[in-house]
Amino acid sequence: MNHSGEKPVSTLTYDIHPRGNSSFSLYEDDGLTRAHESGAFARQRVAVTAPTTGSGTVTVSVGAPTGDYTGKPASRGYELSLHLASPPGAVTADGAALTRLASKGAYEAAATGWFFDPADRAGVLWVKTGKKPGAFSVSATGTSVPPAGPIPAGSAPAPLPHEIRIDPGARHRVDGLG
């Protein structure tokens, strides 16, 4: 979402490229006022555990939102798009099996479930959890992460056009503008 009001806040989508252990914190406020300056906001921690290479289990743990603001939903639906190299053997939400759906259309129509699309960006596992009021976790077992690509040669950032490089050991002459 690029700005408040772009789409409803009834479903939150996380787009995740799992590899190893990682986490981040989602920040939310009402998107309309400056009430966040006096503490009217919420945060939600998301942690991902995955193999660094090869196959294994990918787990996404979504913490309960902490904090409050006007308009904060009491519960919401969650969708995960996990970039994986192979379909999982099973997907669970809080230990309960989610239904494997046969097509993206069936996935779109369902309230909960999962669908693996190998043609979508080299493999995406789509997961719908349904509405959740607090913390939950989703695990995909028997899957694999895509191989890590090499770091491109010459990947150092290009100098900015206004960058000035000065050798502190050299003599420098500065001309005046007058």
Main beta sheet strand tally, sense and closure: 7 strands, antiparallel
Low-confidence stretches: none
Beta-strand proportion: 35-45%
Radius of gyration: 23 Å
What is the residue-averaged pLDDT?
A: 87
Apparent shape: globular
Number of strands: 11
Number of continuous helical runs: 1
The ordered H/E elements are EEEEEEEEHEEE
Could you explain how this protein is built, in words?
By secondary structure, the protein is mainly beta. It is globular. Helix content is 3%, strand content 40%. It has one helix and eleven strands; from the N terminus they run ββββββββαβββ. Strand 3 (41-49) and strand 4 form a beta hairpin.
Summarize the structure.
Helix content is 3%, strand content 40%. The chain contains 1 helix and 11 strands; from the N terminus they run ββββββββαβββ.
